[in-house]
## 1
Amino acid sequence: MKKDFTYEFVEGRPNSLTYEISLEENERLRVLASRGIATLCLNHAGMLTMAKLLVRFAAGRYSKTFHLHLREDFGDTGPDALTIMMYPDEGGIYAGALETSGAKREFHYEFEEPLPNRFSLDYSKEKDEKVEVVLDKESTTLCLNRSAMLTLARALIKIAQGGYSEGFCVHFNKDFDAALPHRFDIVLQSDDKTVG
């Protein structure tokens, strides 16, 4: 069965990014790090919020040093849980996979509903994704080029809307290349507001 996801947004000012969260949806985001691997734990709503944020970042007119600091559960207080930044040497404006109408933008993703406990990644046509994770004592930084942002957004949408069970985990390697080292995991967390 085909699934469809469309996200419409208005392009913001250069070097400024806003994203929407829904207080009713209870977006969850936790980031853990162990043995050089980052684990991003998100619930369904958190995955869709993160996907929309990545789409906006990929579509924006941002300088090479532009980055986002996300707090736990996408909150506005507390320590940073995750930093997302443009992959080094990535610049310019990327509009691939996005339709433009003035300042209004649209991201459309159609995919086949995956089989239970199966997952496949939908790469860009160019297969030029660059992704790396930098861990230090205090924070986790996810560095992505624009095509990797859109590939990760598609992965998050597919997990959020794909009928997967709590605890479903996908392992990602550097540059989304199976021949390169493992860098981070995405885990589907409970939607239950009482689960920490």
Note: The helical segments are 44-59, 146-161.
## 2
Amino acid sequence: MNCTGVEREKEQCLNEVVINCLSDLLQVAAKIKNDAFSAGHELRFISPMINVGDDHISNRVGRTA
């Protein structure tokens, strides 16, 4: 898609807003618990969204099903 500088800036701004809203929504959603699971006493660790390309995150090699 050929975008002018202004269009590209608007698209980047919109993407940033959507990502921020999604991150906020996921933070709230992780705290909501259905009443059917009210007896559970699990501990939930909730982090902000992590970029897939983050060098701090890696997967260990293991078996696959």
Note: The mean pLDDT is 79.
## 3
Amino acid sequence: MRIEVPNSDLEEHVRRFGTRLEDYIWLPQSAENTRATYHPKLQQHGLLVAQERSRFKMSYNQRETDLHKQGALIIILPEFTQLGKLLELDEVYDGNGNLINRERVTEIKNEIFELRDPWRAEYIGNRFNTKPKVTTTSTTYFTINQDGKLIKVTESLSQDTLLNGDQLIDLSSWFKNITVQGLPNNQTQKGSLNYCSPRNYAVAMFYAHTLDAGLLCSKSDNVISPNGVREVRGRIFTI
């Protein structure tokens, strides 16, 4: 599938899809990260992450396809953990490179993580697959190359990934002990966040409500649900 719009050209996203850059958070990436685009005003590499969830009451596959048609992708776990840490900082910028006021940043953070009603949940763009004979688990996600071609990427999970079924972990400890794929590693401390480790033929989801919150890597991709997704623009794969 060809998206037609190079994912590195943010202005073309504005022209073609009507993307409002002020509706996105600028998620900085390292200069060495060739999977990110460059922001001339902020003079750094990064990604655009939607401030709000979207595409409710659809199946995972429907959400994914609809985003691809709009030149966008679902946020994946490394980006989700980076976003969580970014929202704790004093300076957070929008897609135009303008500072987002602190009240709005807190509002976005609480919408994702705070223990309160109503139930909120968002799918993450990671699929999981386990090969029983070799007992290895991999994750698959999409990206868009510089020519606008949709690319499917599959990676084996890091050996230090926390894979001991269902357990309670600490959110801040997870953000400090992240694998390459954004999952908690074996050094993650116990806590109150529900964590369901990757299951075969499953997708990831983060939820929060008044009683608890959790990262569930065990959800079906063909169920229509009220959960939304958080779109990302600017993720590039150059190989």
Note: The chain has a mean pLDDT of 89.
## 4
Amino acid sequence: MKAKPKSTKAPQTFSQIRRAVIGAVRVIEMEDVRTKRRYFRTECRRKNVTPKTKSFNNWKEAMQFATKQNLAVETGQIKETDDETIFKLKQLGEKINVSNILKEDSPYRFMFGKKKTTLEDVFDVGIQTLKSIGKINKKREEAGLQSFSIQWAMNDFENYESLKSKVAKAPKIKEMTRQLLAKKLSRTGGKGNRELEPKSKREWKYTLERIDRWIGDCSMEEEKKILKIRVINGINSGANESGKDKGKFWGAITKNRFASKANEFGNWMVNEEYWETNPFKPLPKEFSVLGSTRAVTFTAEEVERLFSVAVKKQNRRLIPYMAFIFFSGARPYEIAGDKKERRFDYDDMMKWEQPSSVTGGVLFEVCVFDKTGKRKSKGARDRFADLAPAGVEWIKWYHKEEFGNEQLPTGGKVDYSRRVFARIKKEALDYYWPPDAPRHTFTSLAHRNEKFKTNNANYWLEKCGHSHAVFSKRYDAPKTQDECEKYFNITPTLFV
């Protein structure tokens, strides 16, 4: 006997308990076969009538709704039994009313240039927002990013715009660079609230003006990465504005100097609590100078050409200044600067009565502060410098030629003119002038000159005002005795 084929019908889940018809609406009671739970619903298949199906907790509620819905169908008064869409719109309307965005004094009214926001405005913005988020999510998915939820997207947008407003409202960085520059140019601009020397002031002025060009118009709240990139680009595109290298890009040493100054500016911003972090901290390392940083010195022939131009009548007033910077190791601003009050006083020569047992020249005093209390040297203490015989001869020659006085000056001040000095440098060396070259040249040669004998191993460190570490790093270049003798024999007798 053949087995009966298995039934292909799905097992019955619900069974109908009862059914009623009220006009166009049916009421059905169903039971879950497994759990024995009862379900009640209404059905209406008429066109334009919703809800077409609706669930209830019991038979009585279902019958009451069916009666009400049928009456609405027969009389055409469907308002009493709004469909789900209209019902939800009503709920949204209540939600909008509670939010107060439709009131005339609502802050949202200005979004549309109207006195009052309408429901149409709300829906238009909502539709536009959803479309925009959809487009954004499509691009995010293509980029492998997680899609925005509505709330996430709106929070992100709000945070972004808040940051933009904060950036726009914050002070410009140019206000901070000017504040720092004013500090650096004041009498308390250096370490220990001491006044900076003129050279340092000029360097800060020039450097901060450059930083101002690169990021001055940026907000203090600008993204730090953007500020860093702009400074890096500024340094890499920097070019010399004068001299024989005019138009050429900055060398490694100049780049490092600007990177270091940018870092100092960033540190100041952090110390003043304008920033929490310094975006320029890595720059000195990024623009580090590879290899030796030994200072460049003049040759004896180059110095001779400078003095050959300086002896001309129109340039002669610079002879004493050049004598000091080339034959004593004094820093230029310790002898003279652009401001007239920045002049070396011959009173500090102590009547030329302190001979040097090392060079055969004379000792003179270099004071950190002048008589008015203004800083004239970056040294930490006063020192006695050594003016070599060649320097003494040049000053003696100048005063004899200009004033007919064969005596060395014991009063008055050293003359200076930036214009005349530039003329000398241009004619003699076509503006070739490595940084601090006169001091570096003298110091290197004085250390190596066998004729300058002393038992004090620190003699030239003390006379020139630098440490042994600086000497080892900057001045300890090999110099022959022949070079030394040529240099220290550059006197007026070569030209007159």
Note: The chain has a mean pLDDT of 86.
